[in-house]
Amino acid sequence: MRILVIDDDDQMRTLLRQVMEWAGYEVMEAENGREGMQKHLKQPADLVITDLIMPEQEGLETITSLKKAYPAIKIIAISGGGRIGPEAYLPAAQELGADKVFTKPFDVHELAEAVRELLHHG
Amino acid sequence: MDEIHALVVDNSPVIRKILSYILEAEGCRVETAGNGLEALDCIGRQRPDIIFIDLIMPKIDGEKLGYIVRNTPELEDIFLVILSGVALEDYEITLRIGADVCIAKGPMVTMKEHVVAALDRFRRNQRGQTGVIHGLEGLHAREVTSELLVSKKHREVILQRMAEGVIELDNKGRVVMVNEAAVGLFGLPEVKILSSPLVQLLPAQANERFITWLDRLERGDACGPLFFSYDDPLQLGTQQVTLNLVSVAEGSTFFVIGILQNVTRRKVLEQRQRRLEGELQRIRKLEAMSLMAGGISHDFNNLLTIIRGNVEMARYVCQQENIGQMLEEANKAISLATQLIHQFSTFSNNYVPQKSQVYLLALIAEVLDQELAHTDICFELHCKENDFIVNVDPHLVQQVFVNLASNAVDAMAGVGRIDVHVDRVNGNEESVRIGQLVPKGELIRLVFTDSGPGIPLKSLDQVFDPYFSTKQKGAQKGMGLGLTIVHAIAKKHGGSVHILPVREGGCRVVLYFPLHEIADAEHRLAHRQKQGRRVLIIDDEAIVRIPTKKMFEHFGCLVTEALNVEEAVTLYRSELEAGRPFDLVLLDLHMPRGVGKADVAGEILAVDPKAALVAVSGDRNSMVMRRYGDYGFVFAMEKPFTIETIEEVVNRFL
Prior knowledge:
With about 120 residues, chain A is of the alpha/beta class. Chain A has helices at about 10-20, 35-40, 60-70, 85-95, 110-120, and strands at about 1-5, 25-30, 45-50, 75-80, 100-105. Chain A has 5 helices and 5 strands. In chain A, helix 3 (about 60-70) links the parallel strand 3 (about 45-50) and strand 4 (about 75-80). In chain A, helix 2 (about 35-40) runs parallel beside helix 3 (about 60-70). Chain A: It holds the Pfam family Response_reg. Chain A: InterPro entries: Bact_response_regulator, CheY-like_superfamily, Sig_transdc_resp-reg_receiver.
C-alpha cells in the first residue's frame, strides 16, 4: 500500500512519513499539489494525505482533480486553519471528496487508525 | 403699653443721634446700627418692635435689609419705617420694599413730625403700605444722585444675571452680597446666606484654608487670592465648584469678592471622555491582538502538530520507562498548549462563530453545575422567563461561563455563592445607566455576581487586558486570558461585557447580547424567513464555488449552484416564474467559451431588470471589476473571498 503525503512544510511531511512508515506503508512526498499529481502518475498511491491551506488554495484543487481522475483514491485532508479558519474549509474539502478531515494538531494514532480503516474497510 | 423697642439703622451718626433723641423722647428704648449687617446682629440678639432704615448704606444696604426682614417668618411683622435720602430720585425703591411708612429725609422739623406720626401709626397698629412718601414737600431731585442710582441698577441686573456666582464678604468673612447664581450653588435662600459667615456655607474641606487666609488679611499681611481650583474644587451639595476669593482694600480695612464657577458639567464630560478613550484604547488593543492571533494560532498549530506527533512516535518506540515518563509529561504540556492556542484563536477576526439555537439558561446551569461541582459554592439563576432560545455559538458561550466561573472560584477560594440574573433591557438606557458603551437596541442582560472580595476600583479599567490578573502570576498555566476571551466572545456576538463595582463587595460582571440574536418562537420564525434568502452562484470551478457556497450558508442563505451560463439563465428564469426569485446572483467573469463577462449580466437582466448581480473575478483591475455599475452589477467581489467580504455582501444586499 502506498501513501502520498502533500504538504509544503517539510517537518510536517517528515512527521507524516514517519508515522505512515511506522504503520507499515510505503510513502511518497510532494511539496504541492502539482508535484503530487506528477508523482501519482508515475507511481499511483492508494491514499493521499494533503494539507488544505497551502499557497493558492492548492489543497482543495488537488482534492478536486484527484477525485475526478481517480474516483477510487482515498483522501485525508488536514487543516490548521488559515485566512478563514478550518470551520469553513473542512466541510468544503469533504464536499469536494475528502474521505476524512483532521484539524491540527491531531493525534498521530488516530490518523494512522483512519488510514488503516480507509484502506482496509473503506 | 409696654416700652417700645426701636432700632435705628443709618450710616450717618448724626441721623442716628437725632432719631434716638426723638424716639427716646417718645418713650422708646432705642438701639442703633451703622449698616445692614450690624442691624441683623441687633435683630438677632433681640427682636425690635419697629425699625427705622436708611436706604443707602455700606455692607447690607437698606433695600436688602428690608427684604430680609419682610422675608423672614419670625421678623416679617416688625413695623418697618424707611428713611430715604433718595426718595425723589428713586420713588419706586422706597415703595418696593413694603415698608409700613416711608419718610423722605429733609428738614429736621418735618422729619421729626413724620417720625412721631409713624410711631403713632405703630401704636395704633395701622399697618400696610400707604403708597405715600411723607415729607417730600420742598425737596428737589438731584441729577447726580439719579444718575448714580440708574447706573447702580444696571450693574445690579448684570450681576444677578451672570452665570458665575458672585459673593461679597466683609472683613469678618460674612456674606453681605450674593447674586442669583451663587444662591443656586449654595442651595439656600438668599435671606439665610446674607450675614452668614462663609465658613458655615463651605464644605469642611475648605474651612482651614479659608480661615488661615482671612486671619492673615486681618493681620494686614499682604496675600494673594485664595483659589479653590479646577483640580481641587469644592463640593457644594451635588455640584463641583471652583471659588476664587480676592481681598479689596477699603481705607484701613478690606472686603472680599468671591467668584464661584460650577464645573460639574465639565468634570462629568471630562470623565466620560476619559472613559471613552480608555474604551477605545482597549478596542484598538484587542483589534491588534486579533490580527496577531490569526497568524500566530495558524503557525502554532503547525508547530504543535509536529511536536505532538514526534513525541507520540517517540513514546511509542521508546523502551525505557523513565524516558517514556518524560515524554508523557511533555505530552501533557502540549495538550495545555493546544487548549491555550485554541482559546487564543477565538480572538482572531477569522474565527467565525458557529451559531446554533441554544437554550441559554440551560446552558449556563450546565456549565456552572460542572465548574462548581467540587467546590463549596452554590449558584442561583434568576429570571422571570422560562428560558431564552438564543442564536449563538454554544462552545464560545460555554467558554464565557467557564471563564467567569473559574475566576469566581479563585476569587472566593472555593467558598461562597454566585447569582446570575437574566432579563431584557434597552441598550441606550443601559449605556446611560452604567455610563459605559453598551450596544444599541434591545439586549439580553446577564448579570453575574459572586460573593468574593471583588476587584479593586483602580483595576477595573485593566481587567480585560490580556495577562492582567489580580491573582499571583504563574499560579496556573494558560490563565490570564479569561476575561479577555470573554470580551472577544461577547464582541463576536455583537454584545459587550462590563465589570461594575459593587458597594457591598464581590464582583459583578454584566454581559449584553443583542436581542436580534435571540430567537423565541415568534422571533425564530422571522429569523428563518430572513434566512431563506436565495443566492445563485455561477462558476464552473468547484474549488471556488463550494467554499463560497459554504460561507453563504454560514450566514443562513440558501445557495444554488450553476456550472455554466445557459444553466444559470434557464434556472433564473424558471425560479422567477415559480415565484422564488434569487435575491443575489454571483457571476464569475471568467467562464469558459468567453461568454461570461457582461453578456451574461445582460441576459439575466433581460429576464429580470431588478436582478442583483455581483461580478466575481480574480482580476481586480479589469474594466468590468472597476466599473461594475456600468455593466449592470450591483457589486464586484475579488477572488479569493474572505468571510468578511461575504458578510459585507450579505449585510448590504440580503
